Amino acid sequence: MPSKTLTEPQPSTTRARVETAVIGVAFGLYLVFLLKLLLFSRVPGSERSLNLIPFASIANYLVGPANVQRFAFANIAGNILAFVPLGAYVLYLRRRARIGSTMLIVAAASVTVEILQWVFAVGTSDVDDVILNCVGGLLGVLAVAGLRRGLRPEAVRTVIAVVSVVAVPVWLFLGFVVRLRM
């Protein structure tokens, strides 16, 4: 009976490479779209405001008129959902990372976006956005941490790849819909 040579790719190795490539491409597409959505979807110089008071915008949304509350829901949900993939991908890709260090990366990314929005006057720079982005990042981090506790590494990779194939296109579509309504 002929034996398999070392040069023939094993099914699990080929599968692992495909899954890893899918995750990498999905993460890249996510980052490009996130930057487009947050920094390049408005004309530079069109809007510049700053809120450094935690929960001020959220409180205003909750007590505002109905038309403001509709916008508020989209803004709050959008800020949370926008960073769920970042938390998930960063924790997954940094294999030995801890939740705390991953959350520092998520927070730094969010603060960087808010600073760039202010510098280029392409949106409202709001500490509440950072808070909501961190909530979203934490949801992604906790999802991956939960998968790691319950599944083997190969199964975690498969789940992340499948979710990437399904969720990233849905996330991109929802991002466009939310942006169109703003």
Automatic annotation (TrEMBL):
<protein>
    <submittedName>
        <fullName>Glycopeptide antibiotics resistance protein</fullName>
    </submittedName>
</protein>
<dbReference type="Pfam" id="PF04892">
    <property type="entry name" value="VanZ"/>
</dbReference>
<feature type="domain" description="VanZ-like">
    <location>
        <begin position="27"/>
        <end position="144"/>
    </location>
</feature>
<dbReference type="InterPro" id="IPR006976">
    <property type="entry name" value="VanZ-like"/>
</dbReference>
<feature type="transmembrane region" description="Helical">
    <location>
        <begin position="104"/>
        <end position="124"/>
    </location>
</feature>
<feature type="transmembrane region" description="Helical">
    <location>
        <begin position="20"/>
        <end position="38"/>
    </location>
</feature>
<keyword id="KW-1133">Transmembrane helix</keyword>
<dbReference type="InterPro" id="IPR053150">
    <property type="entry name" value="Teicoplanin_resist-assoc"/>
</dbReference>
<feature type="transmembrane region" description="Helical">
    <location>
        <begin position="130"/>
        <end position="147"/>
    </location>
</feature>
<feature type="transmembrane region" description="Helical">
    <location>
        <begin position="72"/>
        <end position="92"/>
    </location>
</feature>
<keyword id="KW-0472">Membrane</keyword>
<keyword id="KW-0812">Transmembrane</keyword>
<feature type="transmembrane region" description="Helical">
    <location>
        <begin position="159"/>
        <end position="178"/>
    </location>
</feature>
